[in-house]
């Protein structure tokens, strides 16, 4: 968590934060996104986008994009979950994973290739 807070520190006007993972692992069971939201004193909504189902999760909204039959799992705090899911569904990119999330994942893994769709 300290690394995430340090990365966000220079940004004074953040509308929403999207995390790779869950905001809620289940109802009343916080995940990374919920902990981040609380650490930021609820000032910024957080949307979690996970690529795999978390066993026992009873609150994720499944979003299917592109031609994929495998959904993404969207949870949120500080923003209506249905709005968060619709926003993820509307993100740019023709594939299951929105282009911007794919690019962030590549950068985090040290891959410097450009994103191609």
Describe the structure.
This protein has 117 residues and is α+β, with helices and mostly antiparallel strands. It has one domain: archaeoglobus fulgidus dsm 4304 fold, CATH 3.30.2170.10. The chain has four helices and six strands. The strands form two sheets. The protein has a four-stranded mixed beta sheet, with helices on both faces. Strands 2-3 form a two-stranded antiparallel sheet. Strand 2 and strand 3 form a beta hairpin. The longest helix has 10 residues. The termini are far apart. 26% of the residues are buried. The model has no long low-confidence stretch (mean pLDDT 92).
Which helices and strands occur, and which strands form pairs?
Elements: H1 2-8, E1 17-20, E2 24-26, E3 29-30, H2 32-39, E4 46-50, E5 61-63, E6 72-77, H3 81-90, H4 99-108
Parallel strand pairs: 1-4
Antiparallel strand pairs: 2-3, 4-6, 5-6
């Amino acid at each position: 968590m300290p690394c995430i807070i340090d990365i966000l520190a220079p940004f004074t006007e953040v509308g929403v934060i999207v995390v790779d993972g869950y905001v809620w692992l289940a109802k009343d069971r916080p995940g990374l996104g919920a902990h981040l939201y609380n650490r930021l004193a609820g000032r910024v909504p957080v949307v979690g986008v996970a690529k795999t189902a978390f066993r026992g999760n009873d609150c994720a909204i499944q979003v299917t994009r592109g031609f994929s039959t495998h959904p993404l799992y969207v949870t949120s705090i500080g923003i209506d979950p249905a709005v968060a899911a619709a926003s993820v569904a509307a993100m740019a990119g023709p594939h299951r994973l929105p282009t911007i999330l794919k690019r962030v994942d590549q950068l985090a893994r040290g891959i410097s290739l450009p994103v191609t769709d």
